[in-house]
Amino acid sequence: MPKFLSLFSQQKRLISQQREISDLRKQLATLSQQNESMRQGMRRCVSCDYRVDAKRDSQQDS
């Protein structure tokens, strides 16, 4: 009987871990999409520090 309960316990833990992995993959996809969107917006921005620093660095390299 203990082996039977142990098997169910392991199965339950596996299902829980699979669910957590699935949730984390969805979260990663969402955050990656938001990151790319922000990156594109920052490239278009002419006043943000990121754009100003990049512009200044490119002028120094020239």
Protein topology:
Layout: H1 2-44, H2 49-61
Could you characterize what this model shows?
The chain has 62 residues and is mainly alpha-helical. It has one domain. Helix content is 90%, strand content 0%. The chain is built from two helices and no strands. The mean pLDDT is 82.
Spans of at least 5 consecutive residues with low confidence = none
- Helix share bin: over 70%
General form:
rod-shaped
Count every beta strand, where a strand is a DSSP E run of 2 or more residues: 0
Structural class by SSE content: mainly alpha
Radius of gyration: 24 Å
Q: Specify the biggest β-sheet.
A: none
- Element-by-element helix/strand order: HH
Number of domains: 1
Tell me, rounded to a whole number, the average pLDDT: 82
Q: Determine the number of helices (DSSP H or I, runs of at least 4 residues).
A: 2
| Beta fraction | under 5%
What separation lies between the terminal Cα atoms? 76 Å
